[in-house]
């Protein structure tokens, strides 16, 4: 006798939505517990600051895959053994279950992303931070990193968009560039993460002394010759700094995958 519930369908449903396959085989409480486990685990990782690095992101993806895969296998096995009525639970309950989880997911990824998850990912479309961060890199940022420090690579808002640059100075610092070398409060920081071959042109070689305003940061791109940074757009308010870039979680260049930034 053929099973009245399809194992493959149960498996795929659990892969798509946490616990959905278990709901399909009338294990509603099991499905809810799986969903609760998944979201609780994600939130706890976020609150503990685990996710905001490439390694943490891999751990998160592994956790999600493990929970979904385990529930998918369980629901497939239960589907083969199922002998109850075909129309249990009702389609309305399926729609309600999936809809609630979609809403929870959207809220976590939008409204509660910063306070609960504490991370965001970005695709890098420009080379202003090359070769540290290059076109085609996928980066992860820590949204709860605290006040930006000199040397941090940060995500910031500017004219309605988000971009990344390196913090060269914070409020109260005095900066200058002499022969391409950054002078901060009288200390020579050399090319300050910029490769020598990217330090050329008048704007890269010379900067008259400038004092960073309180509550602002002065940003420079590592690709100094081709970077629209504070030399041109001015200082950026700290309130517009979204987070600190912690590393590259994926890239077209496999050797760059997993790169961490201090």
Automatic annotation (TrEMBL):
It is an enzyme of class 3 (hydrolase). Belongs to the peptidase S26 family. This is Signal peptidase I. The keyword Protease applies. CDD domains: S26_SPase_I. Its main location: membrane. It comes from Pseudomonas pergaminensis. One of its GO terms (molecular function) is signal peptidase activity. The chain crosses the membrane at residues 6-25, 32-52, 58-83, 95-116. It is found in: Membrane. Residues 100-249 form the Peptidase S26 domain. It is a multi-pass membrane protein. NCBIfam families: sigpep_I_bact. Keywords: Hydrolase, Membrane, Protease, Transmembrane, Transmembrane helix.
């Amino acid at each position: 006798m053929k099973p009245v519930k399809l194992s493959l369908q149960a498996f795929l449903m659990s892969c798509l939505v946490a616990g959905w396959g278990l709901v399909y085989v009338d294990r509603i409480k099991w499905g809810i517990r799986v969903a609760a486990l998944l979201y609780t685990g994600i939130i706890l990782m976020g609150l503990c600051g685990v996710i905001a690095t490439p390694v943490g992101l891999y751990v998160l993806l592994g956790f999600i895959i493990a929970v979904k895969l385990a529930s998918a296998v369980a629901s497939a096995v239960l589907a083969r053994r199922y002998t109850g009525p075909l129309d249990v639970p009702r389609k309305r309950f399926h729609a309600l279950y999936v809809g609630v989880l979609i809403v929870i997911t959207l809220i976590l990824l939008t409204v509660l992303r910063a306070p609960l998850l504490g991370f965001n990912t970005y695709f890098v479309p420009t080379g202003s931070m090359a070769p540290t961060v290059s076109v085609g890199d996928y980066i992860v940022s820590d949204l709860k990193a605290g006040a930006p420090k000199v040397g941090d690579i940060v995500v910031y808002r500017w004219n309605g968009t988000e971009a990344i640059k390196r913090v060269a100075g914070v409020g109260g610092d005095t900066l200058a560039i002499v022969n391409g070398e950054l002078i901060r409060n009288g200390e020579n920081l050399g090319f300050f993460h910029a490769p020598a071959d990217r330090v050329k042109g008048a704007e890269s070689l010379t900067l008259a002394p400038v004092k960073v305003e309180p509550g602002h940061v002065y940003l420079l791109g590592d690709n100094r010759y081709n970077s629209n940074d504070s030399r041109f757009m001015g200082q950026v308010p700290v309130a517009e700094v979204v987070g600190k870039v912690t590393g590259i979680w994926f890239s077209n260049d496999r050797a760059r995958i997993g790169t961490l930034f201090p």
